[in-house]
Design brief:
By secondary structure, the chain is an alpha/beta fold. 42% of the residues lie in helices and 16% in strands. The strands form six sheets. Strands 6, 26, 27, 28, 29, 30 and 31 form a seven-stranded mixed sheet that branches.
Length: 979
């Protein structure tokens, strides 16, 4: 008859030791290797394979390490934990180390039985990480069984990569381009949302009635909605069909009161109070109606809403936050400011003449169409705007527009003309359909205008190059200045032809031996909507790789607004140049936010706005829209969206004035025209009101449901269990040094060459840094910041490179026959003046059996913890020291040599008597279990149902991984006392 092993027991099978997991049955054991990860879990049938109980082997007395051995073993052990015992089940297993402020939304979520959250932190703070933390925790606890992320198709692959690499969640992409392939693998009558538990879904694909109903019926019990503000609209704004469909989709998803729902957006207001209320209504219906000026209303909102500026979290957990000291203080390295510079250019005489002729043509068409009917007037209007915007963009875009038929020309009505013409010529702040919006619009609306437009197109084509295109000449000048100052800029354009034109003009061409005006070592690439989202990321990485680490090499990225949202570019670029002005300033803010965010190494991000001094459009847009937007952001510390209809009203007035001037010659100035004055007054009033509301809401709705003291308590517990950044830095440096690596310090960390280390470590590192990096002995950069680029390692416990190093160090310590250097050992004897009597330090591994209740039933979990315990004297009469004193022993330095034979005799005596301390180790384990139980209950205080049935018990016996004896130096032994 097979023996029954309880969860957490140690067994020996297949020549190694394993931990029994809760999923085991009497006839089937589910096992995880001792010190291994979940990837190594195996199933064993005791009836067919030999399985026997195991006890952890004691250290070998003769295998003594030096003064570093205990600390290195402890850190290596803790880095390997993938199932922490604390209330945050997922933190030990994810590949990102969250900032302390990013735990606030998680703490808020765990206090709700059904999680409903609106996460509206400022751009660049890390909303994706905050949402990912909540999702991974709910999945780890069994509170959720599946996940759906709704986002724009352009961001789907980035979400997939973030979830996989940082949180270990493999999600399937459900896009118009993938759905056919996915559906081919379904069984009869099966929904793909049943087959794939975790999915990333294009909001625009799934919102259609054909797909929406199937999604709602089989929707997972956890949904994240990215850029959630695009799914609602204000009550007094004309609603597009797309917005209606998105809102209807979310409304039906949110109807299920048992479904967890996370709405993510940096702009919850979009300038309209009713839009904000509609968004809150999706989180919790009563929030759409509650009086938010009342204490009751604010308390209700505070449970579900978090919105913080960078200034709120730049310095966190300090005495200013109400803490007793700054011991847990955390500084997040956001760029301190954006340096703005507006640079002008003038048109060449030839370009000036072309623009005047184009304006004259557009004016004639608009005047002629006004007498033909409303449909014709709107078609002519959109054609005129398309022509003007392309003209001031570049000669290439102008020529493309002049040769292309207007999208609005096929419209059957004025309303259809607006629907077809507006997307390609306007810059809506809330557009989540950026795909296809960077193509050059058409201007041709009638057959008999072909020859005239063709002649204008030929003239435009002839103006290419810096001799006639003075805008390009100005760009080259400002890019040279940025590159000379060490910056790597992104140049944002409105249209694809402009981006491709700039890339041709600026890039080196080895085939024709054309040299870039920016220098032979400057690498230039263009990314536009002609590439798929993944191809865009690949091209950026290729650009960074080609530029390499050469200090003289520089990279310039030319991009359209397909990269202005969602894509994080702060690791490769640190400046933005607006080549084409957006007609909604929120788009500028989104562009700049690609580099001005957490992880940017520059303290100052530079922003250059290039505008035409004499083209009639740019200067007015800059003065009226862009500069006011900057001022509001400077005053409030956050961006306030300009209402789309207000922005459009102003730009329409500018175009009207320009066309009128083209027909009647120079008359009144723009700022004197009645239509502009009225549009600007409406904009000013609406925008100021939006700014006032935003300012008031940031004060009224500041995150108060979680006090910094509560965050500090949990951060301290996590760091005690899993280790902090300083410990990891020390561990990596000392381990690599001991293993034979070559280390060189840098400004923000160090670099390591590992070709001289043991083959076992090289084999472990090759999959995570690349075999070529190891074989060619390329330096591996280790950065102190957790936000690192590809090819770099972060000095945090969750980094894959750190994990591979820790695994090697731990395995080498446990295997006395391992080849090569072994930095960590399981025992050591150190003579030091840090003690005055013989002191023994134990590294003890505890295993806990947790019963975690959830709405999907109880979940049985085995978790691990490592503790340092120290006592003075003999084990039988041990005087146990406080925890902080035990930790201090890790820093004790040897002040005298300890003879090997003497050290081995001392260690043998201690190990022979260690059985005497077992009762204390067991009682301490029970204390830890009680503390963990209280911690789980504390984090989940909101509902009795969440903690009913919760239990934590310590598995016995505990494992003594390491034993280290500290002997007092001769000078430190008190008179009459024998050492």
């Amino acid at each position: 008859m097979a023996l029954t092993y309880s969860a957490g027991s140690l067994v020996t099978a297949r020549g190694r030791e394993w931990v029994v997991l809760p999923e085991s049955e009497p006839d089937l054991l589910v096992l995880r290797p001792l010190g291994g990860s979940d990837d190594d879990i195996a199933a064993v049938f005791p009836a067919f394979e030999t399985v026997r109980g195991a006890e952890f082997a004691p250290p070998v007395p003769g295998d003594l390490g030096d003064q570093r051995a205990a600390g290195l073993l402890r850190t290596a052990l803790r880095v390997g934990f993938r199932s922490g015992a604390g209330p945050f089940r997922s933190l030990a297993g994810i590949a990102v180390e969250p900032r302390a402020y990013q735990l606030v939304p998680l703490l808020m979520a765990l206090r709700q039985k059904t999680v409903r959250m609106l996460i509206s932190d400022d751009v660049g703070i890390g909303k994706t990480v905050e949402a990912g933390l909540i999702a991974s925790e709910l999945l780890a606890q069994g509170e959720a069984t599946g996940l759906a992320v709704l986002c724009s198709p352009a961001l789907a692959e980035q979400w997939q990569q973030e979830l996989r690499t940082k949180f270990g969640i493999d999600a399937e992409l459900v896009l118009s381009s993938t759905v056919s392939r996915l559906e081919r693998g379904l069984d009869l009558g099966q929904s793909l949302f049943d087959k794939y538990p975790h999915v990333i879904v294009s909001t625009d694909f799934i919102k259609s009635t054909r797909h929406r109903d199937d999604f709602v019926r089989h929707c997972p019990d956890l949904v994240i909605v990215d850029e959630a503000h695009t799914c609602v609209t204000s009550d007094d704004t004309k609603v597009s069909t797309q917005n209606q469909l998105r809102h209807e989709l979310l409304r039906r998803v949110a109807e299920d009161a048992e479904r967890h729902l996370l709405l993510v957006t940096a702009t919850p207001h979009s300038g309209k109070e009713s839009a904000f209320r509609n968004l809150l209504g999706l989180v919790k219906p009563e929030l759409a109606r509650v009086d938010l000026d009342s204490e009751k209303g604010r308390k209700l909102l505070a449970q579900h809403f978090v919105a913080r500026k960078r200034a709120d979290v730049r310095q966190y957990l300090t005495k200013e936050d109400g803490l007793a000291d700054d011991s847990l203080a955390e500084r997040t390295a956001f760029p301190s400011d954006r340096y703005f510079k507006d640079e002008t250019y003038k048109l060449s005489p030839e370009y000036r003449a072309l623009l005047d002729d184009a304006i004259a043509y557009a004016s004639e068409r608009v005047e002629e169409a006004d007498g033909q009917g409303r449909r014709e007037a709107r078609i002519a209007w959109w054609s005129a705007i398309a022509l003007l915007r392309s003209m001031v963009s570049s000669p290439r875009a102008a020529a493309q527009t002049l040769r292309t038929r207007s999208a609005a020309a096929v419209a059957a009505s004025a309303e259809e003309a607006d629907r077809l013409g507006a997307p390609l010529t306007s810059d809506s702040a809330d557009s989540d359909a950026l795909e296809g919006m960077d193509v050059a619009p058409g201007a041709e609306t009638e057959e008999n205008a072909g020859s005239r437009l063709a002649e204008l197109a030929q003239r435009a084509k002839a103006l290419e190059g810096p001799a006639q295109d003075l805008k390009l000449k100005a760009l080259i000048k400002h890019l040279k200045a940025l590159l000379a100052d060490g910056y790597n800029p992104i140049v944002f354009c409105r249209y694809i032809p402009t981006a491709e034109y700039l890339a041709e003009q600026l890039a080196n061409d080895p085939e024709t031996k054309k040299r870039s005006p920016l220098g032979a070592k400057t690498v230039v690439r263009a990314v536009t909507g002609t590439l798929s989202p993944q191809q865009r990321i690949d091209r950026i990485e290729e650009l960074a790789a080609e530029a390499g680490e050469d200090a003289a090499a520089r990279r310039v990225l030319i991009a359209t607004d397909c990269l202005s949202e969602g894509v994080n570019l702060q690791h490769h670029f640190d400046a933005v140049l607006h080549y084409d002005l957006a007609w909604n300033p929120t788009r500028h803010d989104q562009r700049e936010g690609r580099v001005d965010r957490y992880g940017q190494k520059r303290d100052e991000v530079r922003v250059i706005t290039l505008y035409g001094d004499d083209n009639g459009i740019d200067g007015k847009v800059l003065e009226v829209l862009i500069k006011k937007h900057r001022q509001i952001k400077k005053d409030l510390g956050i961006s306030v969206s300009v209402p789309d209809e207000m922005s459009t009203g102003v730009t329409d007035a500018i175009v009207e004035w320009l066309l009128l001037r083209g027909r009647q010659g120079q008359q009144e100035t723009l700022f004197e025209s009645d239509s502009f004055q009225q549009s600007f007054a409406d904009l000013e009033q609406d925008w100021n009101s939006a700014a006032d509301r935003e300012k008031a809401s940031r004060s009224r709705f500041a995150q108060r449901s979680i006090h910094p003291e509560e965050v500090a308590r949990e951060v301290a517990a996590v760091r005690e269990a899993l280790g902090g950044a300083g410990e990891i830095d020390t561990f990596v440096r000392e381990s690599l040094n001991a293993l034979g690596a070559v280390l060189r310090d840098s400004d923000d960390g160090f670099a390591a060459q590992v070709r001289g280390t043991p083959m076992g470590l090289q084999d472990a590192l090759a999959p995570v840094v690349g075999a070529e990096t190891v074989e060619r002995d390329r330096p591996i950069p280790f950065r102190s910041s957790p936000a690192v680029g590809r090819g770099e390692a972060a000095l945090v416990r969750t980094d894959p490179v750190v994990g591979a190093l820790a695994s090697h160090v731990l395995n080498a310590a446990l295997d006395t026959q391992a080849d090569g250097a072994r930095p960590a050992r399981r025992c050591g004897v150190v003579t030091t003046d840090a003690v005055t009597t013989r002191t023994t330090l134990l590294l003890v591994r505890y295993r806990f059996h947790l019963t975690l209740p959830s709405r999907n039933g109880e979940k049985q979990v085995v978790a691990e913890d490592a503790r340092l315990l120290a006592f003075e004297g003999a084990p039988r009469n041990a005087v146990w020291l406080p925890q902080e004193r035990a930790v201090e022993l890790l820093d004790a330095q040897a002040t005298e040599n300890t003879a090997a034979a003497s050290g081995e005799r001392t260690m043998t005596r201690i190990l022979d008597q260690l059985g005497e301390v077992t009762p204390y180790l067991e009682s301490y384990g029970d204390e830890l279990a009680a503390e963990l139980d209280a911690s789980h209950r504390r984090v989940r205080t909101a509902s009795g149902e969440i903690v009913r049935g919760l239990s934590v018990t310590a598995q016995k016996p505990a494992d003594i991984l390491g034993t280290y004896v500290y002997l007092p130096a001769t000078a430190s032994v008190p008179a009459g006392v024998s050492a």
